[in-house]
Write a structure and sequence with these properties.
The protein contains three helices and no strands. The chain has 82 residues and is an all-alpha fold.
Length: 82
């Protein structure tokens, strides 16, 4: 299983939906409002900063996607051993 979330499962699904919608629409301001509404409605004041940072990371990634370099770990001139 992947890393544990500090949020309960239904909240994680809601956050995932907010982030997915933001990625599709490019409207990260709306995502921040959605997160703040979620924080208020579910009493997640302690997680507010973490949730807003998640939105920031998604926005940064959408503007500056990291290149995916296949085989970057392979040294030039060496073949994989069988």
């Amino acid at each position: 299983m992947s890393e544990m979330s500090p949020f309960d499962f239904p909240t994680s699904e809601l956050v995932e939906g907010i982030l997915q919608e933001a990625c599709e629409s490019g409207d990260y301001g709306k995502a921040r409002i959605g997160v703040l509404n979620l924080v208020e409605s579910h009493g997640l004041c302690e997680q507010q900063e973490s949730l807003l940072q998640m939105v920031d990371r998604y926005e940064d990634t959408s503007k500056n996607p990291e290149p995916r370099d296949k085989g970057k770990a392979r040294e030039i001139g060496k073949r994989p051993q069988k």
